[in-house]
From TrEMBL:
Organism: Rhodopirellula baltica (strain DSM 10527 / NCIMB 13988 / SH1)
Polar residues biased stretches: 27-46
Record field: transmembrane: 82-107, 119-139, 285-312
Region spans: Disordered: 21-52
Keyword Membrane tagged: yes
Keywords tagged on the record: Membrane, Transmembrane, Transmembrane helix
Annotated protein name in UniProt: Uncharacterized protein
Length: 415
């Protein structure tokens, strides 16, 4: 999961850049976010105020506007080509080998009579062939896409944004997001489009198909990648970077309360998820082991060696999962910066940021003397006293967050 300033852990389909054709989320009369994808730029890239973008890079950009669909994700999901190779290996070599083994064993048994050993070999070969067929289908792009959307349905939907030398500015129809040049180094392009990882798992990414772009230009993309690779964030301190990231998300209202600093937190390790991974790897180790022995028994030496390599690789993953089961918590620490008004919240780190409505938090709680705002899709924002300039500001935020819902509290406190 990726963290955004104000210690928002967010993985939504959206982000932002050093100025672009994306208007930040605003409050309409109905209290909902209104997005005008055809609005004028909220902030033009300015070399004098932006430490990332130079004057010769300000006009270099790729814009996008449309809807992310399930088909886009299926075509862009990671390791698609690897799966094609796996499918060819399974259906072109391993599964036919075990099918042939079943036929040979059956023919011999019909000629010489069935015995318990022959029946066991036939059942094992059939089981392995069926198991590999099911496993190959399980990791197919279509299946992985459905599982990813089952966990994160918000990966679909509105996509309005702009890549530039400063990074990516993106609006998902509800909130505006910003990814800096340093973050965009992780973005990858192929013949189907662009993927921007959200650091919440291998399949939680922005899947931006070529059709979303206003004429995707591969040469411009290469130039942008070169700019991002040359970007050296160490030239500026964290406060300067975060202040710049805040500016990309729009101006701060005069009445807004500012915050900034470092948050450290001990996060419980999700042992149930780790246990599931460990059990799955254990089952794969067992299947690879049985298949390897059967392949060796039937004389398929090449197949047996390949299965041995798969078994050893999976054993390493199993061991890593087993080690995580012994770790109760994981310490996390990050820098954050932003502001809170009666209507909106802006929260950034040194590499990314988000502008969202105050009504998004669903409930609040206290963890390690930190105020936690819980948001949809298992996200959260963390605040501590030392992040605020005065006790008055801190008390106002605490009082406005005292109920089960955060939205609408700050107005009453201010009055």
């Amino acid at each position: 999961m990726w963290r955004i300033g104000g210690s928002l852990r967010l993985a939504s389909a959206g982000m932002t850049d050093d100025g672009g054709d994306v208007e930040h989320a605003s409050i309409s009369g109905s209290g909902r976010a209104s997005v005008n994808p055809y609005a004028t730029p909220t902030q033009a890239a300015n070399p004098e105020t932006d430490p990332v973008v130079g004057s010769e890079q300000a006009d270099l950009c790729l814009t996008l506007d449309g809807e992310i669909t399930e088909d886009d994700i299926r075509r862009l999901i990671p390791e698609r080509n690897l799966w094609i190779g796996l499918a060819v290996l399974m259906w072109g070599c391993i599964i036919p080998a075990f099918t042939i083994g079943v036929l040979i064993a059956t023919i011999n048994a019909v000629s010489n009579g069935f015995d318990s050993e022959t029946i066991f070999k036939i059942i094992c070969c059939m089981g392995v062939a069926i198991g590999f067929a099911v496993a190959t289908q399980y990791v197919s792009p279509a299946r992985r896409t459905r599982r990813a959307l089952g966990q994160r349905p918000d990966l679909l939907g509105r996509a309005v944004g702009r890549f530039s030398g400063g990074g990516l500015l993106f609006n998902d129809g509800q909130r505006t997001h910003y990814f800096s040049a340093e973050y965009c180094r992780l973005a990858q392009a192929n013949r189907h489009g662009v993927r921007v990882p959200l650091l919440e798992g291998p399949y939680v990414q922005l899947y931006l198909a070529n059709r979303l772009f206003d004429g995707f230009d591969a040469n411009v993309w290469k130039q942008l990648q070169a700019i991002w690779q040359q970007h050296d964030a160490s030239q500026w301190d964290a406060d300067t970077l975060m202040e710049n990231n805040c500016k990309q998300l729009g101006e701060r209202p005069e009445s807004a309360i500012r915050f900034g600093g470092q948050v450290s937190l001990h996060v419980p390790v999700d042992h149930s998820a780790v246990r599931g991974i460990m059990y799955r790897n254990g089952a794969m180790i067992f299947a690879y082991g049985v298949a390897m022995l059967l392949a060796w028994e039937f004389g398929f030496t090449f197949v047996a060696v390949g299965l041995l390599l798969l078994l050893l690789g999976t054993t390493r993953y199993f061991y890593n999962s087993w080690r995580w089961m012994a770790i109760p918590t994981q310490e996390m620490s990050w820098q954050q910066h932003g502001w809170i008004s009666s209507d909106e919240v802006v929260s950034v780190t040194t590499t990314n940021g988000v502008r969202m409505l105050r009504e998004e938090p669903l409930r609040t709680e206290w963890i390690e003397e930190k105020l936690v705002w819980h948001l949809p899709n298992n996200r959260a924002m963390y605040f501590a006293r030392e992040l605020f300039e005065s006790d008055e500001d801190w008390n106002q935020i605490v009082e406005s967050s005292s109920g089960t819902s955060v939205a609408g509290k700050l107005d009453s406190v201010a009055e």
